[in-house]
Amino acid sequence: MPALADALVPWFRAHARDLPWRRPGYGAWGTLVSEFMLQQTPVARVIPHLEAWLARWPTPAALAADPPAEAVRQWANLGYPRRALWLHRAAVEIRDRHAGVVPRDVDALLALTGIGDYTARAVAVFAYGDRHPVVDTNTRRVIARVVDGRAQPGTPHRRDLAAMAALLPEDVADAAAMNAATMELGQVICTARAPRCDECPLRDTCAWLAAGRPETEDTRRRQARYEGSDRQARGAVLRQLRDGDPAPALQDAVIAEWPDRAQRDRAILSLLSDGLIEADGETLRLPR
DNA sequence: GACACGTGGTC
DNA sequence: TGACCAAGTGT
């Protein structure tokens, strides 16, 4: 095994958290749903939503048989509700193009709605045990520090994929463990703020620690302010249609108290454009 | 490649 | 308190 995997894989096997999707036989559908929910969303918030989702829709075909509105409602306040819509579309595609079986091939996975480079590889590796590099935000930070000696990623995604490929052990099971181990290290030890280097299994080989944990020029974009944003307005519109009266809402009655009229209309238009809501005459509702 | 996209927790 | 952060994707 490459040197880093020699230290990291045993650490992972000893310390891995007991997460639902790591249970034996969790299944490719469970893995796929978990990966959709985990996109930009912390583990602790995902777990209860995931279990409720899989209890209601234990297969892609079960989800595909219900209207997208039900997926958006079940998604509740998890955030980025487009993911609920995309997950529903992916379930329909899996039913129609893959006989209801989550595909194993990375390119077939990439062709599904809402699945990008990370999720496709994550499903192939964690659900099916295949050997590919899996690179998420945690992996990028770990590589930046341990390999490149930088505080923050800064490098192109493409290069991190190659870097991770070079770190994978030959053995398929070890390679999958290495992918998970790198992500886990980034989540619990090599965190974005206040990394716990004294507990790190890679503390003797980490380039960043050896260099005295230098600050790196921060190339990250600042997250836009949420308060007063279009995103907040979209969230308010969708929340009303999702959680409000069962009857469809008249367009003028949707978030009627919203202070910025133009912003409210913009939010409705963009939700219509995304397919997250539909117009039915004078009324607005979730998509059927 | 930059940007838009939710929501809630943390320091 | 407010800015940062969180298993990304599509345009």
From TrEMBL:
The record's GO molecular-function terms, alphabetically, read: 4 iron, 4 sulfur cluster binding; 8-oxo-7,8-dihydroguanine DNA N-glycosylase activity; adenine/guanine mispair binding; metal ion binding; oxidized purine DNA binding; purine-specific mismatch base pair DNA N-glycosylase activity
Q: Which SMART domains match?
A: ENDO3c, FES
Q: What InterPro entries has UniProt attached to this entry?
A: DNA_glycosylase, Endonuclease3_FeS-loop_motif, HhH-GPD_domain, HhH_base_excis_C, MIG/MutY
Q: Which Pfam families match?
A: EndIII_4Fe-2S, HhH-GPD
Q: Which cofactor does it need?
A: [4Fe-4S] cluster
> Can you give the residue ranges of the HhH-GPD domain?
37-188
GO biological process: what's one of them?
Answer: mismatch repair
Query: What is its EC class?
Result: hydrolase
Keyword Cell inner membrane listed? The answer is no
EC number(s) per entry:
3.2.2.31
Which keywords, in A-to-Z order, does the entry hold? Answer: 4Fe-4S, DNA damage, DNA repair, Glycosidase, Hydrolase, Iron, Iron-sulfur, Metal-binding
Question: Catalysed reaction per UniProt?
Answer: Hydrolyzes free adenine bases from 7,8-dihydro-8-oxoguanine:adenine mismatched double-stranded DNA, leaving an apurinic site
The UniProt similarity line reads:
Belongs to the Nth/MutY family.
User: Could you tell me what this protein is called?
Assistant: Adenine DNA glycosylase
Recorded source organism is Microbacterium oryzae
Taxonomically, what lineage is the organism? Answer: Bacteria, Bacillati, Actinomycetota, Actinomycetes, Micrococcales
